[in-house]
Amino acid sequence: MELREYYKILKSNFSVVAYATLIAVVAVYAWSVRESQTFSASFLLNVGRLASQNTADYRYDQFYRLQADEKFAETIVQWLSSPGVAKDILSSAGVKSDDKTIRQLGKSFRAEKLSSGLVGVRYSAQSEDEGKKVAAAAAGVVSDKTKNLNSDTRDPDWFSVNMTDLVVAKNTQDLRINLGVAALFGIFIGTLLAFGKFYIKEE
């Protein structure tokens, strides 16, 4: 097929390409506006000790202490990926979560073990105030679960968790870049639809 024939196909199906481009641009514009009204937040959870191990027979050295802190950091990561814990945090912060599915609740917080005894947490919020409240609630819920876990051990003062480095920032979107990419994507999809329509008619 010659280039002239490709041009004729696109010309005869110009409306298909135009509508696909328009839909892509409108969808990305709506998404960009919505995202620019939200906030992203992050904080750190530091795993520490309230007291050293109390035993006259044997004491763990620093290596084993770091190992224990690392394992407990992994536990915190699993807590924050739990829908039940996420719901408790949001409820404690006064954020409505009844309309969220279990899958959505499980993805409310993105927790990652950064090092031994250090967990980074990221999440989205509708306002700066909400971001701060959720961070305080998350620290409180994790601290309470840590205390409950400590109470089941022979050494109730083993682990402690503290929140630091809270940052809440508004999401910014470069509308020109977003719309440009959307237009290119719409033209690409529209072109595929135009050729698909042509070949279906030919058959």
Describe the structure.
A hairpin with a 2-residue loop joins β2 and β3 (118-125). This protein has helices spanning 3-12, 14-35, 62-80, 83-92, 102-106, 128-151, 175-202, and strands at 39-48, 110-115, 118-125, 160-170. It has a four-stranded antiparallel sheet, with helices on one face. The protein has seven helices and four strands, in the order ααβαααββαβα. The model has no long low-confidence stretch (mean pLDDT 82). It is of the alpha+beta class. The chain has two domains: 3-34 and 174-202; 37-170, Alpha-Beta Plaits (2-Layer Sandwich).
Provide a concise account of the structure shown:
The chain is of the alpha+beta class and 203 residues long. The protein is built from seven helices and four strands, in the order H-H-E-H-H-H-E-E-H-E-H.
List low-confidence stretches.
none
**What percent strand?**
15-25%
Order of secondary-structure elements: HHEHHHEEHEH
State the shape: elongated
- Which value, in Å, is the CA radius of gyration? 26 Å
Instruction: Tell me the major beta sheet.
Output: 4 strands, antiparallel
Give the N-terminus to C-terminus distance in angstroms: 16 Å
Counted up, domains total: 2
* SS class: alpha+beta
Task: Calculate the mean pLDDT score and round it.
Answer: 82
- What is the overall number of helices? 7
Helix content: 55-70%
Strands, total number: 4
CATH topology of the largest domain: Alpha-Beta Plaits
Largest sheet, spatial ordering of strands: 2-3-1-4
